[in-house]
Design a protein that fits this description.
Structural class: alpha+beta
Radius of gyration: 14 Å
CATH topology: NE0471 N-terminal domain-like
Bound molecules: zinc ion
Order of helices and strands: EEEHEEEH
Strand content: 25-35%
Number of domains: 1
Distance between the termini: 28 Å
Shape: globular
Number of strands: 6
Number of helices: 2
């Protein structure tokens, strides 16, 4: 049985003055603080691929971290370029839904 694909956002806006990424889906909208998103990066530089251990220490994320730019990757994710120079992490639609707080 095929997995149900994660819902695709209908809108994504990086609001730099408020340091949030606003993601709108058909069913709900959420504002992700930039620092939380940056700390949730799951790329090989931030998380050990073998052990799952988080390499990135959230305390080292600059308080004024910002999204410099975003680009769509295929139809399933965005790649974020962060103001700290990090740009190797993807946020899939599935991952964004995982990061949503329970309603
Ligand atoms: Zn990363």
């Amino acid at each position: 049985m095929a997995a149900v694909p994660a819902p695709v956002p209908v809108d994504l806006q990086a609001l730099r003055d408020r340091q949030i990424l606003r993601v709108a889906w058909a069913d709900r909208t959420h504002e992700f603080p930039f620092r939380q998103l940056r700390a949730s990066c799951e790329c090989a530089q931030c998380v050990n691929e073998w052990t799952g251990e988080r390499i990135l220490d959230p305390a080292t994320i600059p308080a004024d971290i910002a999204i410099e730019s975003m680009e769509l990757v295929g139809a399933y994710a965005i790649r974020v370029r962060w103001s700290d120079g990090h740009d190797s992490g993807l946020f899939t639609w599935e991952r964004l839904r995982e990061l949503l707080p329970a309603e």
